[in-house]
From TrEMBL:
Its main location: cytoplasm. This is Peptide chain release factor 3. GO terms for biological process: regulation of translational termination. The lineage of its organism: Bacteria, Bacillati, Bacillota, Clostridia, Lachnospirales. It comes from the Bacteria. It comes from Anaerosacchariphilus polymeriproducens. Keywords: Cytoplasm, GTP-binding, Nucleotide-binding, Protein biosynthesis.
Length: 528
């Protein structure tokens, strides 16, 4: 028992969110480097080839050199056991990216100092806010010309609606990047180039009151720093751990992942400020992670490589207790006891079979086709289910039909199974049924995945017609008469497979108009 408690206490499970190219991969590599999980930075997923080592899945991945599904990396550092949930970016951005955040206890937001808040950061950030998880900001690429620091913080506060509290402060940027000032210790760590992080930097620590400071960074920068710190002390929010843990205040750090500057400081502070796995809400009340009974929920299902068997791997986040290979667990939604087989875990670059795992960890188990996203597993006398995972608004829609009408059965089966895995969302025309279906996806790549899998696994060719809609809204009002809703001319009424009504819009202006025209109408971006 004591051992279990210790194991759980040292766990930190978080996701790194960013817009593509802000430096998430580079930062992850540097983290792994500190943890000794890899020997050389650059080997986690060098843009194309090395990635396959981590998730060697479908032909599409191999062809394009991208990772279609997200994975988890576990490593130890400084007596912590760290689980980094990888949120796929680029074109492979999908619902999985959002769902991964449901499994995290906190998030690290990487922002490119020369670009500020970008589209994808904004989307992922919304999910973090919905979950009230702590968000830590790392402003990256300070070795390149960055935007004005105050303007960057202002942008985060205004655009994302979260207060910021800089823990350190940059001195210059780009060619003039001199280092960072730690507001707590009142010391400056000087920047030195580390040849893209491959050699030890010769950086120094100097107190802000040290007379040699102007020799190190130049008198003009020293004066500017003192001025900025005064301004900052007067203007920025006080550090308040309570607000940080509620996701209302984001501690901000500056650095350069590529040159390995400020990364370890960030990691150390971050690990101290984040908490070990937190209690989670279930339909029988709050479940404590230290509870001796094992419990977990599925947040991702990945179709497996072996198309002959259509086997799948269900990734689950352990929320309480200890997992032991071969243990019998209750699959709550299936109302059945079973043994989880082939439990796997991803350690830096390789998959391995796990013998034991603890609250905070992620394991992948073989899914014979019985599990769905959001399902709960538990042991112990009491049976309970964790809160469901919301459905995230798709942004791309297409009308899909099979080419050969004789293959209707395979088509429906394939579409339903792929939807059950959560890769696509399926809708129907309002009141006309399943003849033609509308598929919604969060990232366009999912359309290719759908076509590929229907052809290869179900032997069905499809025709796809892209639709112009970009926004979907669930209707929150109970018992609303959809016929009575008057929207803009480009609005479309549809329903999901449970018969719940939804609205499609071409642009956000139409959403506003529709809300104006229908008093009392409540629309939501997340489905239940
Ligand atoms: P991502 O996972 O968020 O998409 O970003 P990634 O780490 O792949 O970084 C995107 C590009 O930005 C990479 O350059 C990377 O080397 C560079 N980069 C990351 N951190 C820093 C930094 O602190 N300073 C500077 N100057 N550059 C940084 P690339 O040319 O696309 O790839 P590569 O050939 O360097 O690997």
């Amino acid at each position: 028992m004591a051992d279990m408690k210790q194991q759980i206490q040292k766990r930190r499970t978080f996701a790194i969110i960013s817009h593509p190219d802000a430096g998430k991969t580079t930062l992850t590599e540097k983290f792994l480097l500190y943890g000794g999980a890899i020997n050389l930075a650059g080997s986690v997923k060098g843009k194309a080839t090395a990635r396959h080592a981590v998730s060697d899945w479908m032909e599409i991945e191999k062809e394009r050199g991208i990772s279609v599904t997200s994975s988890v990396l576990q490593f130890n550092y400084d007596n912590y056991c760290i689980n980094i949930l990888d949120t796929p970016g680029h074109q492979d951005f999908s619902e999985d990216t959002y769902r991964t955040l449901m499994a995290a206890d906190s998030a690290v937001m990487v922002i490119d100092g020369s670009k500020g808040v970008e589209a994808q950061t904004r989307k992922l950030f919304k999910v973090c806010v919905m979950r009230h998880i702590p968000i830590f900001t790392f402003i990256n690429k300070m070795d390149r010309d960055a935007n004005d620091t105050f303007a960057l913080l202002d942008e985060i506060e205004k655009e994302l609606g979260i207060a910021t509290c800089p823990i350190n402060w940059p001195i210059g940027s780009g060619k003039e990047f001199k280092g960072v000032y730690d507001r707590n210790t009142r010391k400056i760590t000087t920047f030195s180039d580390t040849a893209r992080g491959t050699k030890e930097g010769a950086s120094k620590e100097i107190s802000i009151d040290d007379s040699s400071l102007s020799d190190e960074i130049g008198e003009a920068f020293r004066e500017q720093l003192i001025e900025e710190i005064e301004l900052l002390d007067g203007a920025s929010a006080e550090f308040d751990m309570e607000l940080v843990s509620k996701g209302k205040l984001s501690p901000v750090f500056f650095g350069s992942a590529l040159t390995n500057f400020g990364v370890e400081t960030f990691l150390k502070h971050f690990l101290q400020m984040t908490s070990s796995p937190l209690p989670r809400v279930s339909d029988c009340g709050i479940v404590d992670p230290f509870n001796k009974n094992f419990s977990a929920f599925v947040f991702k299902i990945q179709a497996n490589m072996n198309k002959a068997h259509r086997d799948r791997i269900a990734f689950m986040r352990i929320c309480s207790g200890k997992f032991e290979a071969g243990m019998e667990v209750m699959h709550v939604q299936g109302n059945k006891k079973l043994r989880l087989s082939q439990p796997q875990q991803l350690m830096a670059q390789e998959r391995k079979i796990v013998e034991e795992a603890y609250a905070g960890d992620i394991i992948g188990v073989f899914d014979p086709g019985l599990f769905s996203i959001g399902d709960t597993f538990c042991t112990g006398a009491e049976k309970f289910a964790y809160e469901g995972i919301p459905t995230f608004a798709p942004e791309h829609f297409a009308r899909v039909r099979q080419v050969d009408t004789m293959k209707r059965k395979q088509f429906v089966k394939g579409i339903s199974q792929i939807a059950q895995e959560g890769a696509i969302q399926v809708f129907q025309e309002y009141q006309t049924g399943m003849e033609e279906i509308i598929v919604g996806v969060v990232g366009v790549l999912q359309f290719d995945v759908l076509r590929y899998r229907l052809e290869n696994e179900y032997n069905v060719d499809i025709r796809m017609e892209n639709l112009p809609y970009e926004h979907i809204r669930w209707i929150e009002n109970e018992n609303i008469d959809l016929d009575k809703i008057t929207g803009t001319s480009d609005m479309k009424k549809i329903q999901d497979l449970k018969g719940q009504p939804l609205l499609l819009f071409v642009n956000s202006w139409s959403i506003g108009m529709t809300l104006e025209r229908n008093e009392g109408l409540e629309l939501s971006e997340f489905g239940r």
